[in-house]
């Protein structure tokens, strides 16, 4: 059976399980100490890259659908996904299934609920699903070189914007940095997300003022320069800041 | 025809126009110099209060649906609505139509896309639609005393949380304050949104540092105290800050 026929067979089997108008698209960003990557897949019968998304089941909470879809399509199950935006232009999916005839239920208009997460890619053991040929981390800097399906480029851009806004009012870094880290490593994380360099003095002052760091009685040894102090997150204050926001006013 | 019969008749007429699984709920906050209010309506055949929401048409962009629904149900058409969250629990609408039989298409599961806006209620000339008995501004402090339909209380709370987070990274106040205002009036707006008092010195310092204010060569006269300086927004910088965020880092 060729890939397109296989897709049609599976699609027919799944027809009654799903709400045809509703899909979720998880945007998982990976941070590898210097650059951001995003998790994408390529299906067997198409050249375009896709977010690892899928339809919502009729009897399934939306959040549960996003988790299931990411698990089924990429093998990732230990990530907290946060809903960030809805993609609902009426023609957004019109061309994606244009080589199928009208009997395909996917041809009905569907909107997509965008979820995002910032994730440590070292934790991921990616698993490719039966419809895909590849499931990979693609550097954001390389996105302009690949073809993306439907409005998935817009979804990724909006997720990145949301992530950048979020670090104005929520702490970030837990599970992305080693347990003990230097301020310079934390600054690098912020710079990577923001896509620009920050003034070191300002950053150190502001980040210390948040009250979410604990200075340890240890230094990072071995560099060419003066050994820098090590920090860890103050778990209680970090959690509180996550719940209540950083309260800039 | 009693209200419930009228609803059934209109519902049957509208059946083919809408996606039954998809509605939008606009949360419009009004600021009246001292407190926040929210726009709600009460339908003729029910005691519960509702957000002025409705279904999305099959051939309609999502954003356009939110605008249309607010216009049709409350008469408001000059407000910029921003999508903020999706409400997609599988049982969320289960009980709302329980006094109708299964043939009613509304009984199918639907998710709701939440939109919100902060609005000057002086601009509003509220118009009640044919299904409603009331369309009113209700103070947030009075919400605990009324009965709200489905998960609409949760939708309002999430909208308020989003608004509070938003003022960490976006300017606010344009179209809500008079053209010329005092810093104390601006502080009152922030305090009303945040639901708490702010330190005056800190607030003045931070708000001036944003670069979005122009100090005028005028004072507010007539009070018992020293006449305070008047300010207006620097339109260009305000717009820039709206687009790029306030850049706390």
Care to describe what's here?
The structure is a homodimer of 249-residue chains. With 249 residues, chain A is α+β, with helices and mostly antiparallel strands. The first copy, chain A, has two domains: 3-161, Nucleoside Triphosphate Pyrophosphohydrolase, CATH 3.90.79; 183-244, Orthogonal Bundle (Arc Repressor Mutant, subunit A), CATH 1.10.10.10. Chain A is built from six helices and nine strands; from the N terminus they run H-E-E-E-E-H-E-E-E-H-H-H-E-E-H. In chain A, strands 1, 2, 3, 4, 5, 6 and 7 form a seven-stranded mixed β-sheet that branches. The longest helix of chain A has 15 residues, at 152-166. The interface between A and B is medium-sized, with 35 and 35 residues.
Key terms:
249 residues, alpha+beta, Nucleoside Triphosphate Pyrophosphohydrolase, Arc Repressor Mutant, subunit A, two-stranded antiparallel sheet
